[in-house]
Amino acid sequence: MISTLHSGPVADAIERLYAAAQSGPRPGPRRAPGDRETERERSVAERAADAADAFMAISPDTGRLLYSFIRAAKPPTVVEFGMSYGISTLFLAAAVRDNNFGRIYTTELSEKKIAAAQKTFIDAGVGDLITVLAGDARDTLTDIEGQVGVVLLDGWKELYLPVITLLESRMPTGAVVVADNAESPDMAPYLDYVRDPANGYVSVNIAGKRNDTVEISSRV
Ligand SMILES: C[S@@+](CC[C@H](N)C(=O)[O-])C[C@H]1O[C@@H](n2cnc3c(N)ncnc32)[C@H](O)[C@@H]1O
Fold it and tell me: Looking at the Swiss-Prot or TrEMBL record, what is one Pfam family this protein matches (predicted)?
């Protein structure tokens, strides 16, 4: 079998979007520690509006990792926090398509990104697998259906902890959480949480090829 990731409209869309991300605007420079406080004071929605043209996509390696987790676990429900233009969502959708089972719930604040991604998903033939929830993940992810087997956390980093605690009651033993950009100082409370055995995870940090790391945590 040739996977949906390797050939066909999803593979083509991923390639096209990575090329667009390369030539598009980049997110602003990383903030110095003093600036971070000022940055946090700006609302979640304001920062999303400022980043409306930036892709900020996961790496292809992280995409392939997510694909593999979903193929292995065959979860009924996959959740993504932070869709942007949907590169990561296409990796998730490739796996759900190849499993012939499951559904993806993803969430995004930027209306511009939502409109573009929904068109991409339909053009790539995976629109039927993806529910796009418009709005703040802390509201939109409160009542999604099904047992959540795989989660990608890739929205604003200081929200990883409130978002995962929101989903936990629907995450069975064995559910896997992939948290992107674990090197971000804003992720410290999340990392403390998933690395404390009392909170019911086994967690490992994996270095990427750039200066990025992902934290992979499984529910035990
Ligand atoms: C790093 S980008 C996501 C990249 C995407 N996962 C990919 O790999 O293509 C983060 C996105 O999360 C969105 N976001 C941030 N906070 C959010 C929130 N509270 N609710 C919904 N979306 C949010 C931002 O608007 C931004 O588009």
Answer: Methyltransf_24
What is the predicted ipTM?
0.99
Question: What DSSP line would sit under 114-182, residue for residue?
Answer: HHHHHHHHHHTT-GGGEEEEES-HHHHTTT--S-EEEEEE-S-GGGHHHHHHHHGGG--TT-EEEES-T
CA 107 to ligand 1 centroid distance, Å: 8
Instruction: For strands 148-153 and 176-179, give the pairing.
Output: parallel
Select from 50, 138, 154 the residue to mutate for testing ligand 1; criterion: most ligand atoms less than 8 Å from CB.
Answer: 154
Q: Closest Cα partner for 145 from 69, 75, 94, 88?
A: 75
Residue owning tokens 């929101």:
166
Domains, in order of start, for the chain: 9-19+53-219 (3.40.50.150)
State whether the beta carbon of 154 lies less than 6 angstroms from ligand 1.
yes
Cα separation, 46 vs 44, whole angstroms: 6
Contact between residue 5 and residue 65 where contact means Cβ atoms under 8 Å apart? no
Task: For ligand 1, atom 19, name the residue with the nearest CA.
Answer: 136
pLDDT exceeds cutoff 80 at 24: no
pLDDT, tens digit, 9 for 90 and up, residues 3-14: 999 999 999 999
pLDDT of residue 87: 98
97 ligand 1 Cβ < 6 A? no
Q: Ligand 1: which of 14, 42, 80, 81 to mutate, judged by most atoms within 8 Å of the beta carbon?
A: 81
Q: Which atom of ligand 1 is nearest to the CA of 63?
A: 8
